[in-house]
Fold this sequence. Notes:
By secondary structure, the first copy, chain A, is an all-alpha fold. Helices cover 70% and strands 0% of the residues of chain A.
Amino acid sequence: MNEQREDRRLRRTRNLLTGALIDLMVEKRYDSITVQQIIDRAGVGRSTFYAHYRDKDDLLLSGFEAAVDGFDAHGDDDGTVDSQIIPALEFFKHVQENRHLFNALTRGRVIDLVFEKGQDYWSKRFENYLKGLLPQGREPEVPLPVLANYAAGTFITLLKWWLNNDMLYSPQRMDEMFRQLVTPSIKAALGN
Amino acid sequence: MNEQREDRRLRRTRNLLTGALIDLMVEKRYDSITVQQIIDRAGVGRSTFYAHYRDKDDLLLSGFEAAVDGFDAHGDDDGTVDSQIIPALEFFKHVQENRHLFNALTRGRVIDLVFEKGQDYWSKRFENYLKGLLPQGREPEVPLPVLANYAAGTFITLLKWWLNNDMLYSPQRMDEMFRQLVTPSIKAALGN
DNA sequence: ATGATGTTGAACATGGTGTTCGCTACTGAA
DNA sequence: TTCAGTAGCGAACACCATGTTCAACATCAT
């Protein structure tokens, strides 16, 4: 009940701060942004900031988590090599919807940190998937961990390129490219 | 003549500082390293540090340039799709020889900055190369800029994986994998 | 109205940065 | 060997960002 309400002021303050940080990240490198600048831009008191967040990084990650919330892999199994494991289309769409945040992350040079986790996660899932796909007793031409890391890395690379080029193509096209690039290599490496 | 001499003390001090920074980067994140820690470890006076370098970043980049000096693409043309453009084997070898520095860069989370430049450079060269390779009037399935960025990105991804896994395989094997992964996709995208 | 909770901003302690300067120690050349 | 020139030293300093504390004020539900 009381937690339910959550006092609109709380949410308002957090939104102001997150918005100010994103604003600033569009303008300058993340490391060069000071807490003072954030609270000035947000019109929020200094102590209020520290009542909500431990430091600048905390604010950043909270904002990011909020934006990623509500995103969960759907796993539409259409039979191709990788669709369930790396839900590329879903993710491209999601990034497009939150382009403001992701652009800021890119400019602020924090995107690497964020995507690193994603790459690890997808790489592991993909490796398990490939393990099941490989015929018994057969050795792939490229070791599975490398192969999995390659696939996840390609996805991240495409995502970065897309963000750095004003999302020139549609999410559908990007997803298509991802598969066009990764599928031949995977098939060749697995030996069929 | 006078520049030739260069007082051994100068070089010694610089080596001490670079070494201390690398030492520290092996232990902790780059941003958490202070100038004080560097000069303590190096046994060098504070003012001496600032006489040589403008700041921490300056020291880092100088050290990196020094290590990359003496490396230049050989371009051994053996007829496969990419050997001249991205001299992967040469680079894997070079990284292995300077593994100390590259490991430190990786742990210090600065590697992204350094490789970003490399990826841009290779991507552009590769795009030009592919442009010449494509039959007149034919459209590739994946746009050339994306394709080039993909190839350069794959190389960087492999390099990072290699560094993060104790250089498990030989430079020759890594080079081989790079080609096994990239070649099928390139061929498929170019339509042959 | 009242208590609970959120906000404010000044003041403060702390710690890193980069500069200055008088002194010492070493170097290479004659 | 001598000596002028150069490099290194480190204490002291001004500056600035961080994160904490606190007393006063604002807002809301009941």
